[in-house]
Amino acid sequence: MVQLGEMPDKDGYFGEYGGQILPPELVEIMNGINDAYDEVRQTEAFKTELADLFAHYVGRPSPIFFAKRLTEKVGGAQIYLKREDLNHTGAHKINHCLGEALLAKHMGKKKVLAETGAGQHGVALATACALVDIECEIHMGQVDIEKEAPNVTKMKILGCNLVPVTRGTATLKDAVDSAFEEYLKDPVNTLYAIGSVVGPHPFPRMVRDFQSVVGKEAREQIQQMAGKLPDVVTACVGGGSNAIGMFTAFLDDEDVEIVGVEPAGKGLDTPDNAATMTLGSKGAIHGFKCYNLQDDDGEPLPVYSIASGLDYPGVGPQHCYLKDMGRVRYESADDKECLDAFMTLSRVEGIIPALESAHAVAFAMKEAANMSSDKVILVNLSGRGDKDADFVANKLGL
Ligand SMILES: *Cc1c(COP(=O)(O)O)cnc(C)c1O
């Protein structure tokens, strides 16, 4: 039985994964954040403020929808969708960004700092910072800035300080380095807001806690709608925040099968994928230990997915632990299956999913077809596909 209350341990380990693989002065800073979080999260002021924002700003609880036509088309288990795509800003990321911005404010920080790749984390964080009234600085590679114009515009409108990064390949990795250097200049007055359940302790724990509202709501909602717990719960896994947010509520339900879905990209037998759990080996990345895709020298490999939110060479430490203990199964869906699920869900339900979320839908469609019609699959639909619509239309020649 998973004793969630005891995870991670006091050093931030989930079994052998996680921790703080950092120089001593940074360990001290991270422990300071952990202590402050422990203190703040128990205060009524913080709890009430976050709960209020979830209800009246994000629009929580997000509904659960029985995808009847998709179920009929696939022929098998009933498919239900947890609609995180209906949140303000269109995805689950707002849940932890609000938590982080609010924490920074309660800790008396002057600034929240982060990097962004495709700009999804940047927009969610800039939104939260505008609302909470705290300065926001986002580092983004110049190449990504040119590719992701709509998100760049949004971040500017939301009032964040967008710092273009031109060094190296001018992409995500360089943005991480640049943001981290900036952070080290003044860690006392700044909070580095990590965008998933990755990075050094306490981030895998904190971000999980902020996202766990997803599974808490879903577990109640599905019992009301379907009259029982789901037989299978599934979500896509990049760093793993939407997945762990959903899974946490079901870990102790032994009869509920839990499946994380990774991006197989152009195929597991090609270098163009980001199936960290399926193909990775144990190692350190960005201050923590996890499965990762790395070369012989332990350097992160370039990874790829059609969904830019999923192409990270590491993965949250709790997922690694859950895989090893056999509680969660990790499968993958490739670009083609993802596009097929994207179009199918759009055409039979009128819901355009994010390409990230479409990976989970693709798995659910495959799995449901092999299950009887009294079974229930619950899919975390982590975000909406507005950001992907033009790309997909071009790709498919629509
Ligand atoms: C960022 C993103 C993801 C991937 O991040 P996780 O931490 O793995 O959840 C998934 N879906 C959407 C819509 C995203 O924006």
CATH fold node name of the largest domain:
Rossmann fold
Q: Strands of the biggest beta sheet: in what spatial order?
A: 3-4-14-9-10-13
Strand content: 15-25%
Give me the secondary-structure category: alpha/beta
Order of helices and strands: EEHHEHEHEHEHHEHEHHEHEHEEHEHHEH
| Low-confidence spans | none
* CATH architecture heading of the largest domain: 3-Layer(aba) Sandwich
Total number of distinct structural domains: 2
Q: Mind summarizing the main beta sheet?
A: 6 strands, mixed
CATH class annotation of the largest domain? Alpha Beta
Q: Give the helix level as a range of percent.
A: 40-55%
Radius of gyration: 20 Å
Distance between the termini: 49 Å
Structure commentary:
With 398 residues, the protein is an alpha/beta fold. The chain folds into two domains: 152 residues, 3-Layer(aba) Sandwich (Rossmann fold), CATH 3.40.50.1100; 217 residues, 3-Layer(aba) Sandwich (Rossmann fold). The chain is 44% helix and 18% strand. Strand 11 and strand 12 form a beta hairpin. Helix 5 runs parallel beside helix 7 and helix 14 crosses helix 15. It is globular and about 55 Å long. The termini are far apart. The relative contact order is 0.16. The chain binds pyridoxal-5'-phosphate. Pyridoxal-5'-phosphate (PLP) binds next to helix 11 and helix 15. The site of pyridoxal-5'-phosphate has 19 residues, from helix 11 and helix 15.
